[in-house]
Amino acid sequence: MSTPFGRRPTLVLGTRGSKLALCQSEWFQSRIHQVAPEVQVTLRKIQTTGDKIVDVPLAKIGGKGLFVKEIEEALIDGTIDVAVHSMKDVPAQLPKGLEILCVPPREDARDALISRDGRRFRELPQGACVGTASLRRQAQLLNARPDLRIEILRGNLDTRLRKLKEGKFDAIVLAAAGLRRLAWEQEITEYLDPAVSLPAIGQGALGIEGRSDDHFVHSILSRLNDPATHAQVSAERAFLHRLEGGCQVPIAGYATLVGDDLTLEGLVAAVDGKTVIRGRVRGPSREAHELGVQLAEQLLARGGDRILRAIYGTA
Question: Is the terminal CB of the chain with fewer CB neighbours within 10 Å at N or C?
Answer without folding.
Answer: N
